Structures are given as C-alpha cells and as structure tokens.
Amino acid sequence: MNKALEKIDRKDAKLAMAHLYVAFTALALGGLAGLLQVLVRSGKFELPANIGYYQVLTTHGVLLGLILTTFFILGFQTAAVSRTSGTFSDGQRLTGWIGFWVMLIGTAMSATMILLNEASVLYTFYAPLKAHWIFYLGLTFVVVGSWVDGAAQISKYISWRKQNPGQPGPLLTFMAIINVVLWIVATLGVAAEVLFQLLPWSLGLVDRVDILISRTLFWYFGHPLVYFWLLPAYMCWYVIIPKIIGGKIFSDSLARMSFILFLLFSIPVGLHHQLTEPGIDAGWKFLQVVLTFMVVIPSLMTAFSLFATFETYGRSQGAKGVFGWIKKLPWKDARFAVPFIGMVAFIPAGAGGLINASFQLNQVVHNTIWVTGHFHLTLATSVVLTFFGIAYWLVPHLTGRVLTPAMNKLAIVQAFTWAIGMTIMSSAMHLAGLFGAPRRSSFSTYGDAQQAMDWIPYQIAQAIGGSILFLGIILVLVIFINLAFFAPKGEEEFPIGEVEENAEKTPMILENWKIWITLTIALILIAYTVPFMEMFQNGPIGSKGYRLW
Amino acid sequence: MHMHRYEKWWLVFGTGSLVVFLFILGISAFHQGHTPPSAKAFVNHEQVDKIAPFNEPGLKKVEGKDWDYELVVLASAFFYNPGEVEIPKGSKVKVIATSKDVVHGFGVAGTNINMMLEPGYISEYVTTLDKAGEYLVVCNEYCGTGHHTMKSMIKVVD
C-alpha cells in the first residue's frame, strides 16, 4: 500500500491554496520593496515620484513580516491538519474561509493606507507616531481573522480526539495546534494595544496614549511572533524531512516535548527587546533574559533529533566512517536540499540571537543594522527557505500536479541564489551593525562624518546581496506559478514521517492542555505582573499623536 | 520518557553551558553593575524645556558624585540638543537624555552608549570615555522622514 499518495480533500486543498496565493503575492510586492530599499541605501539610487523610503520600508515589513508569514503558515497548517486528522467538516471549512476573508479584507485596508502614505509607521507601528485608524483596524482584522482560521484547526483536532479517545493526536496536527495556541496567547497583547490604546487614540476618542505600556504589549506579542514563524519550519524538519530522505522520526515524544517548551518559553520574554528602555527595572529585564535563554534547550533537542535522523538513515544505507552518512542524503531533491540550507543558516542565526538577547551585549547591537542582518538569517533564510521547500511539494499536491525534474533543478538553483545573496547582504549588515550603523534608516552620510563614510562600502555590499536575493524571489515565483497552473497533472506526495517501529509509546501527559496552558499563563504572570503594575502606577502623562512623515 | 544516552549527554552539556553563561551574565550585572539603561525617572515631556536639567542641555562638570560630568541631551524630531559636545578624555560621564516628542534612539557609534529615548521617561547611562576621537551619535529608532538626518557628535579630546 502506498500511503504517501493519500490525497487531501479537494475542498480543503482549495482553502489551503487560497492562503498560498495571498502569501506569494505578498512575497512579490514585499520583495520589490526590499530591493528598492537596498538600492536607496547604497546611495546610488533615488526613489521616483515622491515615494518615501519609510513608506517602502513599511510596505516591506508589513507584507513580508506579517502577511506572507501569517497566510503561508495558516494555509500550510490547514493542509497539515486535513492530511493527518482527516477532512474538515463543512462547518470547520466554512470557519476557515471566514477567517481567510477577514484576514484578506484587513490586509487590503492596511495596504491601502500604506500606499496612500497615511501609515508610514513601519510594521512595529510604535506610538506616538500615529497612523490612520483604518491601518490599525485593518491589522485588527488580520489578527481576528487568524484566530477564526486557527479555530477551524482546533475544532478539527477536538473532533479527532473525540473519535480516537485515549490516543495522542497525530504529531503534525499536534504541532499545528501548539502553534495556534501560542499565536492566540501572544496576539492578545497586540490586540489589547490596538483595541484599548491605538484605535481609540487614532479615532480621536482619547487624547493620549501611554508609550511604555504600548511598547510592552507590542513586544509581549513581538517575540512569540518569531516562534510562530519558526514552528512550521520545525514541523517540516521534524516530520516531513525524515519521510523525504526515507528515514524515520527520531522520537515522537521528544518532538512534542520540544514544541511544548517553545510554547512555554516564547511568550514571557518580550522585555529582552526593551533592554535599553527606561522605566523598566533592570532586575525584571534580567529575569526575562534568563527565560529567553530557556529556548536553547528545545533548540538543542531539535538539532540532535534532526542529525540523529540523518545519521540513522545514512547508516541504514551502509554509510561508513564518522561522516560517511552525509553523502547518502538526497542532495538532488529540492524538498530536502532547500530546507537543509535553511537549517544550516539557523546555526549562525541562533548564535546571533543569543548575542542580541544577552543582557549586556545587546547594548552594542541594539537597533543597529546587525539586528536586521540577524532577522534576515532567521526569518528570511531559515524559515522562508523551509517554506519554499514545503511549497515545492505542497502546491502540486494541492493542485493535482507534479514537481517536474526541471522545476526541481530550478528550485535548487533558487536556494543557492538565495544563500549567496543572503550571505553577502546579511554579513555586511552584521559587520556594519557592529560599527554602529543604525537600522531602519535611509541613506545618509550624517554630515560627512568619518564613521558614517566607513559604513557606505557595507551598504553597497547590501545592495549587491539584496539584488541577488530579488533574483531569487523571481525564481521562486516562476516555480510557484508553474506548480500552481502549468505543471503536468499527476500525483505529488504529501510526505509524513513515521516513528521508529520500536519507539516507546507517547505519554498522554504531553497532550494534557490544562497543564501546559496553565503553566504558560503562570510564567507570563510571573514575568509581567510587577513590571506592568509599575507602569500603570508610576507612568508619566501619555503622549499625543504625531504624524512626522 | 525515553531519551537516547547521547541525547542526554548533549542536553546536559548544553544546559550546563547555559547555566554557566547566565551565571556570568548575572555576576556582571549585579556584582559589577553592568546593567543596561533602566532609569525609572519621569518628566512632563510637553514642558520638558522648562524643567531642569533639560532646560539647559549640554555638558556640566559635577562634584561629589560617582561621575565627573553630566551630559544632558534633549532629543526632538529631528535634532539633538546639544548638536556637538567636547569631553575630556578619561572622564566618567553620566548621559541623561529624554525626548520631547516621539520615540528616538541615542546610539553612539564605537561606544557602548545605546539607549531608547521615550517621551515622558528619562534615560540614563554612566560610562567612561577613555579613547580620544570623534564619535557620531545617530538616532537608531525610526522617528519620521528626517530620521536619517538626526545626529550629533561627541568629541573626546586630550
């Protein structure tokens, strides 16, 4: 029996594909905005027709950081839940569609305001810069839509559990649900910021907004946001890749355990983004730095698990010597090779993250372009290349087509283009950042200051790397359109790894949601209660809005 | 839950390194005083140019404190006041800064001085400037169209 050719229901496939169309449209537009930025910052190019640098920067951040990721993730998870827990009921699918449309309408609202230059506040929209209220309302729609979309996945998981009492849910579904729960708990922060602070303020109902509280609510959400991006990549690494290489999942329980640890330790850590801010006690910042570093443990578990899978497979194929198994891996298969480059990028990316979050080292790199370089290694390489690797089998699976050898080859060329472009751009950003070059700034010589002049060669390198990356985006769009509309009809597998035969039974405690959600809330309360109370009790007068663009 | 022997070693080694690392961070922070700027002082940012010390931004020599100079900086879109300052080499300086309007950054390239300036909150950082040279101060938090023109200069002189 060939289990691999189990197909997702056609109606569920349509819902998942709708998400992917939006995601790849966002990639095209947001990528173009990225190209314009690196060109402007090289000092050799100026934007035409009164388009503002910071307007383009807002477009880039919102479309790639928020829209591409959210749509891709929810689309992929819809497919993953449908594949592993069974077809959605009509009600569940309708819920998914409602979520999708609410998100899309919200995206259109925010995007319109950005294009009209009414919302050049970057994707972090820090108060007291005040955007048009439609921009904030649009973002609210995106978040609320994502909750509804996620609710469809949770509902499917609950009905699976009811039909299979006493059994742990399918691994891939379990992982998707952890990510939805993480997302809901995290977005409560940004929802509170927008609903109670920014919306009433931008509508003119209240006069002032408390800056520190708004930033703290934002970062309560902003850090787990990066884990919301990362966990779907981990799903691919843990569950999909073992099947592609022909191996087995190293351990079902450890995979679940590491996802639970990510849920616990991704949220109560937002203050590490605010280390250089006034108004927050150094002791509380330190506590959150310690909690931040706890994610080192699931990261190490993941690294071990992946390489154990690779080595076990290689040895089963008769590999000799310490590293002989490396040769046995399917390097010519884009479904493996593309995410693998993402995994490799995660080694320097993770190391950079440790530096950023370190209590004192942060001082050197805070708000410099080093941070941008780090972000482009984590999100824009590890995560995004893995997403591309997923799309290369998921899109043909959903559209009833196949990944042809020619497209497979082009996909590998694409990944190498990406790796080269990113190495150049990200290294230049990391280095310039160490010398103090700021992030989120247009080209400037700062009155011909010597230090700023020394940054320019790195900015030119960024433009070269960024241009190569844009070529990579064109290639990925070519492949996506081919797989969605033109590739030959056929059956493409949705690869789901299996656990080793002699593996131990998964303990049910891992799926006891009462325990894990209670622990998550407890950690959040420990990390945030006192700092928040201090902000409420001692804060200065709030701030009126400014429109400085 | 079953764990492979090698995985146990790997996690013990990794977690052990983590504990050592955090221990060093903690000692550096609370024993040697290397904490990031975390002042809890407030000011009415709408009246700030009338309130001491921000009514007179600039460098002041002080007596009887743990530092030799206080550098008072008032940031607003898209300027720092003072726009340039000379500081004798080797002096210990307390930077006291705030913003009059939106959130700004205060990053001094080539030093460890790096802080966020937020309306209503005073940011403080103490450091010793022991290398002569010109240090460019840049706004490193987006504050509007003129963000990349917002700068100042600290000259450390012999």
UniProtKB/TrEMBL annotation, chain A:
It is a multi-pass membrane protein. It comes from the Bacteria. One of its GO terms (molecular function) is cytochrome-c oxidase activity. Pfam families: COX1. GO terms for cellular component: membrane. One of its GO terms (biological process) is aerobic respiration. Keywords: Electron transport, Heme, Iron, Membrane, Metal-binding, Respiratory chain, Transmembrane, Transmembrane helix, Transport. CDD domains: ba3-like_Oxidase_I (cd01660). The chain crosses the membrane at residues 20-40, 52-76, 97-116, 131-150, 171-198, 218-241, 253-271, 286-310, 336-355, 375-395, 415-436, 456-485, 515-533. The keyword Heme applies. PANTHER family: CYTOCHROME C OXIDASE SUBUNIT 1, CYTOCHROME C OXIDASE SUBUNIT I. Belongs to the heme-copper respiratory oxidase family. This is Cytochrome c oxidase subunit 1.
TrEMBL record, chain B:
It catalyses: 4 Fe(II)-[cytochrome c] + O2 + 8 H(+)(in) = 4 Fe(III)-[cytochrome c] + 2 H2O + 4 H(+)(out). InterPro entries: Ba3_CcO_II_C, CcO_II-like_C, Copper_CuA, Cupredoxin, NosZ/Cyto_c_oxidase_sub2. The chain crosses the membrane at residues 9-30. SUPFAM superfamilies: Cupredoxins. Keywords: Copper, Membrane, Metal-binding, Transmembrane, Transmembrane helix. Residues 55-158 form the Cytochrome oxidase subunit II copper A binding domain. It is found in: Cell envelope. GO terms for molecular function: copper ion binding; cytochrome-c oxidase activity. One of its GO terms (cellular component) is cell envelope. Pfam families: COX2. The keyword Membrane applies. Subunits I and II form the functional core of the enzyme complex. Electrons originating in cytochrome c are transferred via heme a and Cu(A) to the binuclear center formed by heme a3 and Cu(B). This is Cytochrome aa3 subunit 2. It comes from Oikeobacillus pervagus.
